[in-house]
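User: Continuing from earlier, I have the next pair ready.

Assistant: Great, send them over.

User: Here they are, in order.

Assistant: Folding the first of the pair now:
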Amino acid sequence: QVQLVESGGGLVQSGGSLRLSCTASGRTFSIYKMAWFRQAPGKEREPVGTIRWIGGLTSYADSVKGRFTISRDNAKNTLYLQMNSLKPEDTAVYYCAAAPNSGKYDYWGQGTQVTVSS
């Protein structure tokens, strides 16, 4: 089992920045990839970006490319999401997730609210 705890959400004005963190514990050696997802009110959860735990290869949703950056610190078992140039449409609950292989994400954090005011 892997436990994930997010932090760093909050209220920010349009154009501002926030950094989210996600700390993993438990069987962290089993993690193959991690990701950030988000879910806005009334919408389905959508992927924001992914990162390979070993190697650090990243991918991003088109809606956040050039504004958001995913990184990780393997020594601290922590995943980050640096969000710049935030827009009101980025308002959502943000979740981190971990997958033990190239398949589905088995482990999820509790989510952290990000609200961007116009």
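And the other member of the pair:
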Amino acid sequence: QVQLQESGGGSVQAGGSLRLSCTASGNTYSGVSIAWFRQAPGKEREGVASIWTGSSATHYRDSVKGRFIISQDKAKSTVYLQMNTLEPGDTAMYYCAAKHVHYYADYTGYNYWGQGTQVTVSS
């Protein structure tokens, strides 16, 4: 079992930045894939970025490459999503999720989820 707790959402103007945090607890010592997903009203949920905690290998969807950075602090069991140059299209509920499988860039199969944190970007 893995428990996840997100924080750091909020409202910013376009061009601004936010950093989301996802703190994991439970069975994470052997390495887990952790991903950030987002879901805007009326749209399907999509994977944004992911990391394999064993090696810090990362993956990004094309629309956020160069703007978002996913990283981890192993000592704090926390994964971060630094979001820069935010756009109104980034407005969504953001969730972190985890799975014990190494295929972090495959955004299916994530079976542990946080409660979500809202990000709103105004123009």
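Worth noting for the second one:
The chain has no helices and eleven strands. The chain has a mean pLDDT of 94.
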